[in-house]
Each structure stands twice: as C-alpha cells, then as structure tokens.
Amino acid sequence: MRTVCFLTGLYIVVASIDCKTPGLQARITNKGLNYATEVALDILTKQVTGLQIPDQHGATGDVSYDLTGLRINGFGKPSSRVSLIQNVGLAWSTSGTILNVHGNFHYKYHGIIPISDSGSFDLHTRNINFAINIELGSDTSGRPTIKSRGCSCSVGIADITFHGGTAWIYNLFSGLVADKLKGIVGGSNGIFCQQLNKLVNVNGMESLKNLPVTVDIANVFLLDYRFLSKPSFQPTFMETYHKGEVYWKANPHEAPLPVPPLLKSSDTSKMMYIWASDFLFNSMSYTAYKYQQLQYNVTNKDLPGGVLNTTCSTLVCIGKFIPEIGKKFPNTTVMLYMKAMTMPNMTVLNGSTMVYASGDIMFFAQQPGGKYTYFLTLSATMSTTISIRIQNEKIYAKVLKLPIKVKVKDSKIGQLSPEVLDLVIKGVIAIFVEPKLNELGSKGFPLPIIDSVHFVDSQLTTAKDTLLIATDLKYTG
Fold first, then answer.
1. What is the mean pLDDT of the chain?
2. Which letter does DSSP use for residue 434 in this model?
3. Is residue 165 one of the residues assigned to a domain?
C-alpha cells in the first residue's frame, strides 16, 4: 500500500488542459519516477520477503507429491526502469530479480515396492523479470484514479535442492516441482503480478478514495487542487494541472478573477516542479476580503506603552501627537478600526513579489459605559514588497518594505497635519501591522503533497504571475 501511495502521491502533486488554465501545475520527471520505483522496490522487498505461498500438490508417473509450508525467504532487488506511455500512464519494468523459496515436501512412489518420504527443500530462482503498465487518470469529480493495465513476469532459472529423503527418487520429480514453482512465481497470474495488481487496483484505489483533494487553511479556507483534466505524459516527464484556488470553507464559490498563464519551462534536471499562479494567492485574498477577514480593531492591548491614550504625561501618546484628539476626548483611549476597502492584489514579477492594498482607518474614542464615538477616517494605500521562500513543503512570506500613504477622508475634529498623521500611522504599521503580517507569513502556505515525502535541495524562482519550485525528493516512510 505504501508503494502505491508513494507513486500515486507523487502523481497527485505533480497535465495538458483542455479549456481551463490551472492555478497549480506540477511535473514529475523521469528522475523522480525512477527514484519512486527504487523506493517502491525497497518496500516490495519487505512485503514479499516472508510471504506465504499456498500448498501445492501434483503427480508425475508413479510419483505423487505435496509441497507445504511454502515461504519466500529471500528477495534480490532487481534493476528497474520506468517509462512514460503517451496518453496512458507509466510502464514499469525490472530485470535480474532473485527469489528464494523454502518449503516442505512429501512424496509417495506407487511402484512395485511403494516408497514414501518427506523432507524440506530450497528453491533458488534467478533472472526474474516483471513489467506492469499503470494507467493514471481522473474521475468526474477531479479525483485521481489509478488502474493496472497488464502485468507480465518471467522466471529464467530455477534450481531446487532437497534435504532428507531418498536421493534417487528426487530425479523423478525435481524438474516438475521446479517448473511448477516457477509457474507460481512467474506468469501474469503468478505471485509478483498478483501482488502488483493488488497494490494498484485494490490498495491504490482505496487510498485514492480516502485522499482529500482540498487542504484546510486556518480552519476557514480550503485550497482546492482537484484535477482539471487527465494527466499529460511526455517522453521525459508527466504533468498534472489542478484547480489551484482558495475558497471560503463554509461556502465554496469560484472567485471572479482571471487566471494568468503560467511560466513555460522545459527543465527536467530536478525530480519535481510545482508552479503556483498568483491567482492562487489572490483567490485567497478575494475570499478573505469578501468574508470580512481583512479588518481589525487596534487597541492599547496591541500597542506598547499606552500609545492610544488621549492624555499622558509624556509625548508618547496619540493625544500629544495629535493635540486635537487630546482636547476633544481627554482622559480616554482611542480605537483604530482598520478595514480593507478593496481586495489586496499580489503580483509576481521577475525577481520580486508585490502586494497592493488600500483601506480605511477609522478612529473612535472610548466613552463611559464602553461606547465609542467616531471622529476621524483616514484612507491608506500600500505597495508592499515581500520575500518568499520554500521550506518543509510550505511557502513562507516576509514583509520587506511596507510603505503607506494616508490622507484625511473625513474629520470631525477639524484640520489635521498630514505629516503628523503619516508619522502616527507609520508607527502603528511598524509596531502592529507588519509583525501581524509576518506572523501570518511564518505559518506557511501548505503545498499539496503526501506524508512521508519531503523536498530536498529546493529552489524557488519568481517570474511573471508564477512561483516556480524546483526540487528533489526524499521518502521517509
């Protein structure tokens, strides 16, 4: 099951689109696929070693025999190769497998003088080659599918050694027993193909049925990475294309935003590539704005030293910075209601990432009884530069520059100094807003990848409308 989870999990996170532009696209190269099959062989070795084989019975001439307690006690890892079948999926083949089987035998010679005896035996098989085709697709709901499309297995050499019993009798049926055991191991219905078909068709599909196609973000958003079409297979890589949109968890609806084309790349030097459109992040921004997540009440508890007091003995309070407030509302505190007035928009350019936002900052003075009196509104615009990095299968962001421009939109306390307002708001931004944004960015944006698969030696490139992650992989299951 883990074998298939690894292979299909890579396929899930990594297609030609018929009509829709993806918000998330991924590619797994031959290098990645061959690494996956090496991991799969390690897991298959553990699964096959110790496997019990059903008892076998037969006869040749005057000799009948029973083979019981059959168990695989040795598996030599073969060389492996995976290739891509256009419009279908993967072809995985191996050569040079070694398999050892131990068991017990009992025979009866029905000649003039009946003879029967028993003992144990060891079968040594070499040059076992097997191949399986795997069809990868998606169903009508955008969920991935996997299906075996034919398996073959051949056994080159089989030597059998008996322990106990009468030696001259062995020559009467040793060849037959060896051929029978070769048939059990090889062929389209043999042990290997049974195990591989089961892994793909039973365990694989069962795993995919339970695999979510959305990622929960902060318990209020859903990242949707359903397939938009069947995967695409090229000679050196396979690609999948995903919805790549963030919805409101309680009421998922598509954002009315354009999806820009992603950066083109022919690179296959890494195991995996993931393209994330700035549409993916902007759909989250749109959803957060629509559902009023981009608003916050800033009070003294958010700022140090009573900055929002209207009266103070020092110069470090809003009543001293803006005397009109101190005169109008003495001996109280101010609350700032910060609200986005438009959807913040992220634009990815070559080498930089910018976020543009605008909003209102409304000022309220606290009155006795817990009521607030409105007295001022400032309009603010920001053009923020952020840095983005990839770590532990997440995208992290940090604010580098947060310039803000403010102007008076409405005032109930007369004319105010633009320079002083600018100074006050920049202080609030530096003390509260910027740390708050960096706190969100430090939580990371999760990429859709299965457990036990980790990024190694990752590189992140920013290009027009695109974040491109190039990485190798390590399986730790």
1. 86
2. H
3. yes
Give me the number of domains the chain comprises.
2
pTM above 0.85, yes or no: no
CA distances from 24 to 11, 400, 404, 467 (A): 13, 26, 32, 10
Same domain, 193 and 307: no
Q: Residue 65 phi/psi, 5° resolution?
A: -145, 160
Residue 455 lies in a domain: no
Residues 76 and 199 in one domain: yes
pLDDT in tens, 312-356: 987 789 999 899 999 999 999 999 999 999 999 999 988 889 999
Beta-carbon contacts of 323 under 8 Å, excluding residues fewer than 6 positions away, are none
DSSP 125: E
Token pair belonging to 414: 């007369």
How long is the chain?
477
Determine what percent of the chain is predicted with pLDDT higher than 90.
38
Three-class DSSP category at 100 = strand
Same-domain pairing of 78 and 174: yes
Residue 142 domain boundaries: 50-209
Provide the pLDDT confidence category of residue 25 given band limits of 50, 70 and 90.
Answer: very high
Contacts of 210 (CB under 8 A, 6+ apart): none
Which of left, alpha, beta for 89 (phi over 0: left; psi -120 to 50: alpha)?
A: left
Domain endpoint, select from 194, 209, 224: 209
- Specify the CATH number for the domain of residue 148: 3.15.10.10
The H-or-E segment that residue 181 falls in is helix 167-185
Tens of pLDDT, residue by residue over 175-213, are 777 888 888 888 888 888 888 888 788 877 776 666 667
Q: How many CB atoms lie within 10 A of CB 410?
A: 12
Confidence category of residue 5, pLDDT binned at 50, 70, 90? very low
Exposed/middle/buried for 379, CB within 10 Å: 0-12, 13-18, 19+?
middle
Q: With the CA atoms of 287, 289, 290 and 293 taken in that order, what torsion angle do they form, in degrees rounded to the nearest 10? A: 90
Three-class secondary structure of residue 344 per DSSP: coil
Residues 203, 60 share a domain: yes
